[in-house]
Amino acid sequence: MSQPFKRLERVLRLEMKQGYQDKAVVGGIRQFVTFWIDQARAAVTEEADKALIEQVAEVLNQYHRLPGVEARADKIDNLMAKLDYRRQRVQGNKAKNEHHPSSTKRWTPPKQQPSSRRAPEAPTAPPAATPPPAKPDAPRPTVVADPARLQEPVTAVKGVGPKTAELLHRLGAETAQDLLYLMPRRFNDYTLMKSINQINYGETLTIIGTVWEVRSRKTRNNQVIIQAVISDGTGTVQASWFNQTWLVEQLKPNSQIVISGTVEQFLGRPIFNNPQWEPLAFEPLKTRRIVPIYPLTKGLSETKMRDIMRKAVTQYSDHIVDPLPDKIRSKHQLLPLGEAIRQQHFPQDQQLLHQARQRLAFDELFLLQLGMFSQRQDWLANPSLALPLEANSMQKYYQSLPFELTTAQKRVIAEVGRDLGETVPMNRLLQGDVGAGKTAVAAAALLMAIQAGAQAALMAPTSILAEQHYQSLQKMLAPFSFEIRLLTGNVTAKEKEEVYAALAAGDVQLVIGTHALIQEGVAFAKLGLVVIDEQHRFGVDQRQALRAKGPIIYDQQHHPHLLVMSATPIPRTLALTLYGNLDISILDEMPPGRQEIKTRWLPTRERERAYAFVRGQVKEGRQAYMVYPLVEESDSLDVKAAVTEYERLSQKIFPDLRVGLIHGKLANAEKEAVMASFKAGEIDILVATAVIEVGVDVPNSTVMVIDEANRFGLAQLHQFRGRVGRGQHQSYCLLIADSIGGDSQERLTALEETNDGFILAEKDLEIRGPGEFFGRQQSGLPELQLATLSDVSILEKARAEAETIFDIDPTLSLPDHQPLAQRLAQFWQQAGDIS
Questions:
Q1: How far apart are CA 234 and CA 228, in angstroms?
Q2: Which of 782, 720, 784 minimizes the C-alpha distance to 747?
């Protein structure tokens, strides 16, 4: 057999002996074939051999992608059969094999052991021209897990001194366990290996070669560039590094190195700029593999951070006690936690990285759901005032309304009524799209609590929104004789004192306000129900403070019933996760007669048409919003800003109209004054930023113009649109944007096609993921690093398993659940109450 085919057979035999792990040569089988194919082509003359070389290259170039040992074994068996066939042909045995097509004959290794799938004869060492074989992963030594070691400070990691520890503290890592859960931000996949003559511009890949020369030069702006010429026998390529003068000493001519990076073009030639590199003899850490990229801080380089993490994972991953019951892990085929941590930091391949992510994401969602169930149990363990509803007591309310309630509204009111009659506190989320009638439901809930002899409170995020609720509820509840008061920052000190005294004495049955309701001086005689509007605008501590205003009866705190409202539709998967400790009521029906807002997407060249339409609406007595992404112009972003556009619109486009301006940098008093003027009809066109996403009702506003609409998310665009269409006049939403790629066209098209916020919420989750729904200030959730809530399958599995565990052992007190209880406490340590 000619030398190239002998070399190929030796490598294939070694790969078989090592269990088809793609480690027979450094860089894997694919790297070997890039060197082997040119040598083989040069060494053969027969057409059959040439065809065999191409077949070998086609198979082995895809070898690293094959799914599992069986598939790889089949491919190598087939190649060994072809090589065996070739050997017999070359030896003059062609006639003997005429009835055995080479594509089907199977090579049988000698002395196959019954305990192993295949055990071929030991191969000889690969020739020097082939990259030296990598050492197979040594079996991990058996370690008795000591979870206490995970609480050791980061200085216990080899090579981490006090100064480095301070840098790690900035990244949130105080202990060894913190380091293990300091996950990579992303990965660079350098597993694609090629010879230099096969590289293409734009590819991210790895080459192995010999340094021919290294030189240093200065640029005109006094930067230092280190340039190296590298050859692998098939060609040469230049690699450049900027301001790393020490490389002149490290990159020695004639040394073999590995380079990983993206191939760029310079003067028509391929070049690597600032590639990762390391000596060929080193264990791969930043080349030839999937390389983790960690969060950094000033003073901590990528290389240093990666080295620290490698040592931390090596030292401590075996001391992790897996909190997930074996039954659950086996049922869902999840990696053991220690292995998942190792593969998440330094994955052997994309498949194991995927499995590690699956395991760690499952853990996050599982712990999240367990925490939700625990919070729900804690909430229900507190007593509450039972506020039973008298038969037909709501008929007067229904008859007093100037409109007919929808079936959905009546259904939700009945759900609230049942909750109020219990001695455990209601904890219910009311979801409804813009205009679905949440205020009418809230009014019914407040009325039920008051008729049962308790006090009620409604808290809104802004003074102007609280005042709007005050005016609306005064009208809706006018037929019922009880005292309603307003408590906001705009109320005078004397009025506040009067309200405080009346609440404490029980003379005020309903109070509507802002954060002023949770001040220390506010006390209630018998607070039975709290309604929170736009609940996501309040922090965890603020919501908790209002709930703690409930009465103390027989020396025991009684929590008020709680109804939280959200006009931001949330997909079912997110609702289960974000509000798993609440009962959820959904207004899935719009009141009859409500007009659909007509939505139109215009390219920027048609902006003048939008202006003309706005002018026409104002001429008919209507008002308009014009929304922009930024408050002020930015040097780094070519984006329209509200302040600049306000000046242009008021001076050049609409000089004869009354144009107002509102944005987030204004003081609260200024913002509320502008909104009050707009509501009063004193402003024709209100130029705004996202600050008006949640605002007051202005029934006379009929046009919403959103300039550069592609800069906003789908849910946010829908909320903007909801600011109009609140009166009797037909309303419109104009989206001004060019389709500039990405998902902007998908978002804007979806907004044109439907006014249904729940459909749009599902679409938004599909397009952008759930990131915008997170953040402790809004939800009180622990941070999720790897879980993606758009993966409904994992979420539902995690929730089902959490529910099963909680039903069996709600306090996680069983011995088998002790590690789980500890991990749950750690996971929720930095989070607050979600409701």
A1: 17
A2: 720
On whether the CB atoms of residues 130 and 35 are closer than 8 A, the answer is yes
Those residues with Cβ within 8 angstroms of residue 510's Cβ, 6 or more apart along the chain or in another chain: 446, 450, 455, 456, 457, 458, 473, 477, 482, 483, 484, 485
On whether the CB atoms of residues 343 and 334 are closer than 8 A, the answer is: no
What is the pTM (predicted TM-score) of this model?
0.62
Q: Which residue has the tokens 């807002």?
A: 597
Strands 561-566 and 427-432, how do they pair?
A: parallel
Helical ranges in 491-601 per DSSP H: 493-505, 540-547, 572-578
Q: Which residue has the tokens 């009524």?
A: 417
Could you give the CA distance from residue 606 to residue 685 in angstroms, rounded to a whole number? Answer: 19
Q: Quick one: tokens of 823?
A: 């991990």
Residue 206: closest CA among 352, 26, 21, 11: 26
Per-residue pLDDT band at 538 (split at 50, 70, 90): low
Could you please report the per-residue DSSP string of 215-261?
EEEE-TTS-EEEEEEEE-SS-EEEEEEES-TTHHHHS-TT-EEEEEE
Residues 6 or more apart whose CB falls under 8 angstroms from that of 13 comprise 120, 121, 122, 123
Location of structure tokens 């849910």: 715
For the record, the structure tokens of 187 come out as: 């990965």
Cα separation values, 502 from 28, 486, 522, Å: 80, 12, 10
Instruction: Give the angle subtended at the CA of 351 by the CAs of 333 and 804, to the nearest 5°.
Output: 25
Helix (H, G, I), strand (E, B) or coil at 744: helix
> Which residues are 262's β-sheet partners?
204
CA distance to 197, 253, 277, 285, 742, per residue, from 228 (Å): 17, 9, 12, 21, 38
DSSP-H helix ranges across 346-478:
350-380, 395-400, 407-420, 438-451, 463-476
137 pLDDT exceeds 80? Answer: no
Closest Cα partner for 368 from 579, 177, 563? 579
Confidence (pLDDT) at 773: 40
For residue range 469-478, list pLDDT tens digits in order.
Answer: 998 899 899 9
pLDDT at 781 (0 to 100)? 64
Tell how strand 552-553 and strand 556-557 pair up: antiparallel
Per DSSP bridges, beta strands 276-279 and 732-736 are unpaired
Cα–Cα distance measured from residue 225 to residue 688, given in angstroms and rounded to the nearest whole number:
49
The strand pairing partners of 260, in sequence order, are: 206, 276
Q: Residue 504 and residue 573: Cα distance in Å, rounded? A: 42
- 630-663 core/surface letters (b: 16 or more CB in 10 A; e: else): bbeeeeeeeebbbbebbeebbeebbeebbbbbbb
- Tokens at 588, concatenated: 């899935």
The pLDDT of 17-37, averaged and rounded, is: 81
pLDDT band of residue 127 (cuts 50, 70, 90) is very low
Nearest alpha-carbon partner for 732 in 723, 741, 745, 719? 723
What is the distance between the alpha carbons of residues 63 and 32, in angstroms, rounded to a whole number?
Answer: 11
